[in-house]
Queue: 2 jobs
Job 1
Amino acid sequence: MYDNPIEEARRQAQICNACRYCEGYCAVFPAMHAGRFFSDGDLTQLANLCHNCQNCHYACQYTAPHEFALNLPGVLAEVRQESWEETAFPAPLGRAFHHNGTLIAGVAVLAMALLFWAARHLSSGGTGFYAVMAHGAMVAIFLPAFLLPLAAMGVGLRRYWRRVGGGPVTLADLRAAFGSAATMRNLAGGHGDGCNFEEEDVFSQRRRVMHQLVMYGFLLCFAATATGTILHYGFGIEAPYRLLSLPKLFGVIGGLMLCAGTLGMMHLKAKAAPDLQAPEVRGGEFGFIALLFTVSASGLALYALGGTSALEVLLALHLGAVLAFFLLMPYSKMAHGFYRLAALVRDAQRKR
Amino acid sequence: MTTQDDRYDIVVLGGGNAALCAAITAAEDGAKVLILEAAPKSYRGGNSRHTRNFRCMHEAPMSVLVESYGEEEYLADLLRVTGGRTDEGLARMVIRQSQECLPWMEAHGVRFQPSLSGTLSLARTNAFFMGGGKSLVNAYYRTAEALGVEVLYDAPVRHVALEGQRVTRVEYEHAGKLHTLRPRAVVVASGGFQANIDWLTEAWGPPARNFLIRGTPYNRGTVLKDLLDQGVTSVGDPTQCHAVAIDGRAPKYDGGIVTRLDCVPFSIVVNKNGERFYDEGEDVWPKRYAIWGRLVAAQPDQVGYAIIDSRALPLFMPSVFPPIEAATLDELARKMELPEEKLLATVAAFNAACGDTSSFHPTELDGVATTGLTPPKTNWARPIAEPPFYGYSLRTGVTFTYLGLKVDETARCSTETGRIENLWAAGETMAGSILGQGYLAGYGMTIGTVFGRIAGREAARHVR
């Protein structure tokens, strides 16, 4: 959309800083109004604070056709996207996957095929899932597939931190940042009516609710895996678990939330104006949400149909989707969670 | 080609705050309302899109407003800025009703925020719209449409036919055709005429051609002129307009808030000949904001140049365009196309006239003044000496005009022979009925809201 997003963001921020009408909407504006000139690092930080609620855009007296042609959500989305691609490790992967939903689908299919192969060749004498694939084989595949992307994410975050001039992190910074994320305060619109997104200047909580369904759904699913691991290694209780067990409760509830949330997010995103987001990465973003939906839907299907002959196929589908999801974490929209938190921590530091 | 449509009880002319308050109120009272907005949807809302707050009387903390702001203090503030040219009866009525307007505004979708950074002086008196005036306008359009109010954009009114003491038809243009409406009541809320440069030039003379218009290009005064030509009683001085000094690089229309320049008190201001012409440090800036439009208008080519040094830069709100920057004053003069020697001499004379600056204080009248200089600078007189140097060009920016329709306390318009049966006015187009000169921040929105609601209520009562 813009040839040089960072320069364009600087021009727009200067106009915003002379107006300040949007100060109450979110964390971006108080952070912006604290300064007079904007370094590249400042703009990167503002871009990562922006949650793309678009309230400022619909309230703006200077949007096109006005000659100032402000589109702050749009330009910040592009700066944000650039910052993720530039700080990603290794960077070429960031650039490739952010833009490309087809690549995401490709990785998912490959991962599913790998798991299918593994299911055929690495089965053991276990029961339930482990009759299809040995527990040791799963661990051998997933442990590195989880830890390596996490390490890459760490490198990206460190680069981000240096770029925005972050200082030593205190407990209070973390508390502020996690508190903000837990309630998605920046999607509440300042007045609590929510955000403009899917229907021009109408305020709604829909995006906030959908996002939280995805976020908490995901965390519950993660908790299901974590409690399963503890039960497995700590207590020698192996999957499959009963419905009234922690892994199942977390997994089923989380899976349902994740399914509903991802469908909702896709629906809202399809309705929203593309030019107020980063249009070039729409494919990648839809691809990522679709992958997350596949993870949750296949997980639920596995629960419902695990006792049937579909087990092997469903297990390959589900674990393949999970594998693709983990591998792509630093190079897909999933990265936004980490960068967003970093930006909130940095903002807490600015305020203290 | 002409088409005719008689579906509407009330037609509201204009699409800003006052028009919307009238339309919403009338629709809630059961009337079938049509809004004719001259602007396209993207520019709807008139000057309301550029506003940011609402001055509100309150006995105790209310919404985002702190402490209290009583009727007498409010009125005193108003009388001070208007130099007494105020209709006290109407002014008091507006002030009193402002208090009940705020909850009404919230109930109709408007959201407020605490006063913005850089506007702390208004935290007690003015409630700021979250997102500014355009978000208020958006909320009102949503509310109005939910109440069944119909809105036509790109629909400039060409003629409001007055026959005796009655408006009989409204003619407007839309999609290349002329249309006629015969509503039972009409509310005119279509602002002033400041975007009509020819009319401004008639009132002000040729310098008006160099003025910049801070607000919407759609306030051309077509309806106002049409009604005045038919003998509707006017109020206000046609040669009066609210004018401030804004960044000379601002667009001809619609630059809005960001083009204001707050640097004057910390600067020297010269004309195109490099000469100073007025005391830049006469008073704190908000109080002197409005006289600089006229001062600059009186200079050759209606342009001024504010010169500051690096120490002054952090002392005022940033503005839309970065200043012109130079390492030396002669370089700055060249960049700003000012006569080099003359500017250097002016700065040297000013610097030499500065005395002890140890009590310099940017936010109060510090009495740090020049001695033996004409014109003097009576506060914040600190030498312009620390490079880099910065310059801004200044031009006259017109906010609104005062000539309008005279109304009574029911917002009704009249002619020499008496009240007009079915014509009401609200907002900027009748604000001259209350204040004849000067301006108090946020009072325009208060007049618009109070009179918009009155006009809507009265028009609805008429058609019932």
Job 2
Amino acid sequence: MNGTSNLLSWILWMPIIGVLGILFIPKAKENAIRMWALLNTAITMVLSVKLWMGFDNSIAGMQDAFTIKMKWIEQFNINYHLAVDGISMPMILLTSLLLFLCVLCSWTVSKQVKGYYALLLFLQSTVYGVFLSMDFFLFYVYWEVMLIPMFFLIGIWGGENREYAAVKFFLYTFFGSILMLVGMVALYHATGMGAESFNLLALKAQADQFIQMKVSLFGMSIPFDKLFFVFMFIGFAIKVPVFPFHTWLPHAHVQAPTAISVILAGVLLKMGTYGFLRIAFPIFPSATVYFAECIAALGLINIIYGAFCAMAQTDVKKLIAYSSVSHMGFVMMGMAAMTTQGMNGAVLQMFNHGTSTAMMFLLIGILYERSHHRWIIRPDGSRGFGGLYTQLPVYSIIFIIAMFASMGLPGLSGFISEALIFLGMFPVYTTMTVIALLGLLIGAAYLLWMFKRMFFGDVVEENKSYTDMNAREIFYMAPLCVAVIVFGIWPSPILNIMKASVNDLVTLLGKY
Amino acid sequence: MARFVPEITLVVTMIGLLFVESTYSNEEKGSKKNFLYATAYIGLLFTLVKLIGSLGDEPTAIFTNSLTIDPFSTLSKIIMVLGTAASIYLSRKSSDIYENVKGEFVIISVGVLIGGMLLSSANNMLILYIGIEILSILSYVLASLKKNDDRSSEAGLKYSLYGGISAGIMLFGLSHIFGVVGTIQFAGIAGKLAKLDTVQIAVLMPSFLLFFAGIGYKIACVPFHMWAPDVYEGSPLPVTTFFSIVPKIAGIAVLVRVTMAFFGGADVTLLQMSWVGTLSVVAALTMTVGNVSAIGQRSVKRMLAYSSISHAGVMMLGVLCLSEIGVRAILFYGITYLFMTLVAFFITSAVQDEYGNDHFERFSGLIGKHPLMAIFMIITMFSLAGLPPLSGFVAKFNIFNALIAKKYYVLTIIAGLNSVVALFYYMKIIRIMVFKKSENDSGIKGFDFSYQVAVACLAIPVVLLGVFWENILVVANGAKIFIQ
């Protein structure tokens, strides 16, 4: 063990302790299960904050104070290796916060409570595993295991079409992971005889070596790094999701229960972009530079295409799902710019999109509990919602905050990250930046239209019976409101965490 | 001779079983039947202990070099013995085998096991052929064990016709090889192969293909797989379980031995290239055909049968690497495959006994009725599909590792895409167990306590081997192939 503290292991395994605890609580004691899950996520959150407190912003690489390295499979040089740096730290905070809120927002789930919370905590552990693993093998294990709880959470607790959505999500991601697995094993063998390793840092250190290598495929000689960059890229792109691999996302989002939509949009999509930053970019820097324009172009397609798709939706949740596709496009473009601002903006956007989109999904969930539908305009042409502003004032105000944060209005978190991304992109991809700005405009248009149709105008008859948010709902919305406002005005706490690590990556890429 | 004790034990066990079986009438049950099973278990247990005990011994060749006893064959034998023991346990519980032929199943399966063990130790072509024939002829009887069931009879007939033809073709190939190289010893053949001229190689190439047809039939690889689904479906379920383990592992073991003996050398010959080429094409086709055919199945048993075809394809990938890590990967795969197959078949068997058939719908709502059994089934299905941290994933990882070490990227990708297809049909049964409502609330009687314990014992390794695989790796690493 390198580090002096086991904090990362505690964070990783705390949810598993939670799962074990739940297994011992009788099925009928639903409230006890909920309280236990809440307590467990609260402890994990405290641990994450403790990690944040001990985090040294000035270190660009992995924080030695928290690194844990133990042998697992010696013959393959596979280690249980956890570490944290400026890119993973915000993700850990985001995960801890969102999971805590998800337990609260799932209070009304009454179907198989025990299984639900056990899977939710299990999911949390796997997400931490992805963000903390410094061993590619370990990373892959967590990346894959994450599919299992998601599959059941969507498949059992989801909407009407849940089974289809769960299967599609599972198969799509699994397909990407297989390509990643092939790339991973190829990398392992490429690190040289006798010194084969899955260590991500070691792989990063050998990046230059991979550029020289060739792979023979169907008789053609293909550069090693370019081929496997594409493999990794597809694996991660499916998770982001990058066009044209995005088709699983609207289904999964719409069918998933509220908490799962929140986790999906808030955390899981970030696993894709995190994968780029942690694995694809540093290990294949030259291929990254080579493909940068393609990545930017795909990001642009995501922005525009996602925004247009969102505009066409009559289902609020689907609309927000497509808006996620659009917003993740900004992250992609910011990363592809490979400038300091662009990259910082991308990582910040990963965090900010996590909070703002979580707000939107939580709010839709709250509304759904009252209305049991999500139609802005029903299929028969009548209005699903209308005049909510007069009916649900508190809800409406929070909704406005979330919407404006998502839209990127100055003073709210989305603005800072998007502004940084555009600043970073402009000198590199001027034309694309201008087109991407159009995405912001379309984004404002669909969100405002949605808002107008749902909240203004005459009150739809059935909306009159809806009650405003209760204390529990306000309680779990509050931290997110605070986050989007505070980080909108004062983003430095998050920016400071990531700055050193991100700049390091930008410098690395700049050499190629 | 001392090294032959496991086989001798089994022969003695078989004779003992014949005595026990012949001393009571079919109507009689109870203590004598218990005695029969006890005899079988004691024999198998003794064999197993002997085998495990000799795992670390120096490899030797016995009976004028016609059999080699090396760690590789010993490990294959251990897998086969475990598979046989589990199948016998299953046969006792299953109502798919008529009460009056249960004794026969026990005796014959021990016989098949002896054939399989000979096969995995074969050091010359004659023993190889004898091993295959012992294995096959007894298997034909097993397939048609349900005497008055049309499909079972059909299975037996189909199996024996195909088997007979393929054995003939193989013998033809073997005699050709003998004609050219002048010896039947593996080591001798290997020595001669290195010194052949072009004409001789040209003559030998088709004979190796004919030879391969015989082995290919045994492991049910494409295009010799046609018999498998029908035979697997027609045979009683414990027999299917047995077939998907013992003959398959024996076939793979002999394929590994022959390939490593003849082509494991460093020098690349035309013959070696064509053998590896053939194996590559066959493996890719086997995986794909097995998986694609499994998708449309309504019967779980048939689905598992097709999936076992595709698993044979994956194991072949390890063979064609011609490397030690390839062999190690196959052994690891064999061990995990044993446990996964057994769990899947054990659970299917109980469901089939309850409802009279094994259609997918029969599994609906199993999670509500028998949560533990359903969870084991879910774990096994995910493991078969190759999801971490389960043993199936590690097995697949090892195979991929061997392939990529040899830079066979295309094959790796084909194998990878196949696991996506496989996940689709494995997920089907999970979906039915978890998401579908059950038709009735009655539990499944077959899942009594002892049965649940048995399934648990088989399912726990499926999980544990996925996390703690270092030790198994060490064992598989030591399993060197010895040819003299």
